[in-house]
Write a structure and sequence with these properties.
The longest helix has 14 residues. By secondary structure, the chain is α/β, with parallel strands linked by helices. Helix content is 20%, strand content 38%. It has one domain: 2,3-Dihydroxybiphenyl 1,2-Dioxygenase, domain 1 (Roll), CATH 3.10.180. It is globular and about 45 Å long.
């Protein structure tokens, strides 16, 4: 099973690698791991995100059915991300908001779009056992 040295791998299309670096590194605070002519790899909050140069870019940012993101275990980490998003004026698709209010699955969420219309959702569940 996964341990602290393993990383999930996500790959998404990017129309421009400089835009991807600007958004993920200087916007969200991810770490640049590697860069090549056709792709860029980030340490995305402990997991691996690769943006591949592509002409097949979604025409618009649509949350469903395809998005990726992170569920924060700690509320203060979610709050910190929201402050960064607001301060850096990143493109927000939805939120911050509370979903499933009054249920066991209540959580806060914010959905962003990167420059290539990939959708990233960040969450924080009231009950941390539900983040999986």
């Amino acid at each position: 099973m996964r341990d602290m040295h393993d990383a999930a791998h996500f790959a998404v299309p990017a129309r421009d690698l400089d835009e991807a670096v600007e958004f993920y590194v200087f916007g969200l605070g991810a770490k640049l791991a590697r860069r090549y002519a056709d792709r860029v790899t980030f340490d995305f909050f402990g997991d691996q995100l690769v943006c591949h140069l592509s002409d097949d870019i979604p025409a618009e940012a649509v949350m469903y059915p395809r998005h990726f993101g992170l569920s924060f275990a700690r509320a203060e980490d979610f709050d910190r991300l929201v402050r960064v998003v607001e301060h850096r004026k990143l493109r927000v698709l939805a939120g911050p908001a509370v979903r499933f209010e009054g249920t066991a699955e209540q959580h806060r969420t914010i959905a962003l779009a990167d420059p290539s219309n990939n959708v990233i959702e960040f969450k924080n569940y009231d009950d941390p056992r539900l983040q999986y």
